[in-house]
Each structure stands twice: as C-alpha cells, then as structure tokens.
Amino acid sequence: MILYHLDRFGSLVLGSSIDFLPEAAIPPKCRESELLKLFDFKISGQGWNQLSDRVPYIKGGVSPDGSPTILVDSFISQKNTTDQKIMELVFELVRRSCFPTHPSRFTSLFTVKEVSDFQLWPELYDKNLYPNTRLYKIDSPDNTPKFDANLLRGGVIFGNESKDYYMGYLPLAAFDFAYRYWSGSATETPRWEYLVSLPVAEHCISEAHCSF
C-alpha cells in the first residue's frame, strides 16, 4: 500500500534508505541505559527525540516584590514536551508487556493513508515553523498496522478550578489509553496513523506533493 510521510525537518534524502539513528549519535553516557539496550541501540531519530537526556529550562521572571516567577507560556510549552516523553515511555512499556508483536513507536516511521489526512494534524504542517517540510510516498506492506492517534494521552494533568490549581498524574488512565491504542480501538472520530517499521529501503521512497 502507498502511505505518506511528512518530513518536517527536511532530513530525508531521495535515493537513501530511512534507517535507524546511528549509534554514534547517542551520547556515550546514554549508551549504558538498559532501555536502549533492549532496542540494541536501533531507534529512529524521532524515537531519540523522546528519549534524549536533555532537560529544557523554563523561562522565569521577577515579581514586583522581587521574588522569582515562572512564565506561564514557557511552563506550558515545557510541560507539553515532558508529557509527550512520559506518554511515549508508558506506551512502549504497555506494548512490550501486552502487545509485543506490534512495532515500537521508537523504531517506526509515522505515516497516513491519504495526503488529506494531514489536515487532522495542522500543527505538523506549519511552513513558518518547518520551512524545509517535504512530503514523501512510502510503498509499505499491506499489513502495516494502524492506530488511533486520538488515544495518545497520559501526561501530567494541570489546570485550575475557581481559585484553586491542581496538578497530578493518573497512572491507571495512562495505562488504559495505551492499552486501547495498541489493541486497535478507535474513538468516535479516529485519526489513523500507520507505523512503518524501519528500515525503509530507498526504492520504497518517492517524493510527493501536498494538495492542501
């Protein structure tokens, strides 16, 4: 079947395969990780983005009385990044324990069935943020598994009711979202993503054009 992949960073080169991240790109101190050893250090570039050891800073300020403050926009941005990493780890652990035959999200290429499906991910096709975006056609096996991306949930919950703020983590809900995702369950309006296992041979890749 033909599937479509959006390369936001312009990292793919026609005539080359889409392969795992070179082990040399993983910092030496991270190569002692038991998790990476489970993959024999064969993970995708996107997978490494969710596993890297970099911890971003939150921008701060100073209140009128001189005490330090945290900028809300910066906090929310870094919270979203952290939520994604927590979710990916939980989803991987649930996959390994309950659905080991499914491909890992850390070793897959994320694709969709139709070019128009990318409209369900408007944040991915932002030419201002990703000016080097390229669209590719991927000739994939007919049995490439698909999962509902609407079930990708499970980070830290933060918000407020009236004057009170709340923040916490719901492990049971996080596990259940992951279980539903890997079991192939669908929400009322699913966003189907197809996980193409790496490596992808060069003859299976061709450039496509966006129609939206």
Give an account of the 3D structure.
It is a single chain. This protein has about 210 residues and is of the alpha+beta class. It has one domain (about 1-210). Helices cover about 25% and strands about 20% of the residues. It has 4 helices and 10 strands. The chain has helices at about 35-40, 45-50, 70-100, 170-185, and strands at about 1-5, 60, 70, 110, 135-140, 145-150, 155-160, 165-170, 190-195, 205-210. Helix 3 packs across helix 4. The model has no long low-confidence stretch (mean pLDDT about 90).
Structural class: alpha+beta
The amount of beta strand, in percent, is 15-25%
Determine Rg (CA atoms, Å): 19 Å
Envelope shape: globular
Instruction: Give the low-confidence spans.
Output: none
* Largest beta-sheet details: 3 strands, antiparallel
| Oligomer state of the chains in this structure | single chain
Number-wise, the strands total: 10
Task: Write the SSE topology.
Layout lengths: L1 E6 L26 H5 L6 H7 L8 E3 L5 E3 L1 H27 L9 E4 L22 E6 L6 E3 L8 E5 L2 E5 L2 H13 L8 E6 L7 E4 L4
Antiparallel strand pairs: 1-5, 2-3, 4-9, 5-10, 6-9, 7-8
Short description, anyone?
The chain is α+β, with helices and mostly antiparallel strands and 212 residues long.
Index terms:
alpha+beta; 212 residues; three-stranded antiparallel beta sheet; 21% strand; single chain
